[in-house]
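User: Fold this; tokens only.

Assistant: Input:
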Amino acid sequence: MDRSYVLMTDDCCDLPPEYYIEHDIPVLNVTYIFDGKAYRGTEMSYREFYDRLRQGEMPTTAQVTVNQASAMMEKFLQRGKDILYFAFSSGLSGTYESGMVAARDLSEKYPERKIRVIDSLCASLGQGLMLHKLVKMRDAGKSMDELADWAEANKLHLAHIVTVEDLMHLHRGGRISKASAVMGGMLGIKPMIHMNNEGKLITIGKVRGRKASLEAIVDIMAKAVGNTPNDEFFVCHSDCYEEAEYVAKLASKRFGINDYRIHYIGPVIGSHTGPGTIALFMMAEHR
């Protein structure tokens, strides 16, 4: 492993905390707030978080600040390390911009060091899957620039296909009207969403019924993947593990891949998607 640089990220990757520890990845924590009280990381359990959402509470989130990013980066610069920061999508947060400002300021203070900040244009385990691939490259001895260049060249080939269960949560968050949420709930309408090339989540279709939406995730992904080789995929969920496992098994059979990871959508992204959200992530011809 090349120890001349540090690969860091933020917790919008939605990988489990032990992953970052095992792979020596420093992590910036994005803040989420309930009733004026700020939380970070795993200070609240996933189950408690989603139970509070089901009860109608609506948390807010706050991006990583410039001071947060600077403080973490400087620790490693002082040790003579270069830094590669793989950041949460600029289409959903100002966290990437905070990283860029911190890098610019610190580059003046440490001109002999190199800092690269990558706008992942990814979210949740999409960002996590890209980070995982960078970890493997780092551990194989690739340089920081090789990792950064690969990420820039391939990030728009990481497809995110998402379905949302709780339309009322989308209404409470101001994303759809109450009438649309009520009517959609009555008709069993489930939106199909993907991450576009600007790193924003947009609706690409609707299906009727929960099971149909879970199957549609895999169908839509198959069209995006085309002939792109994959040896692994990730699935995330907001407190609906059994359905996430159903999608994972469908995808495993469809693509002939047995190596996959299932994990929770963390509180920061879960604050916006609500309970019952499931997403599938794979490398693809296009998003």
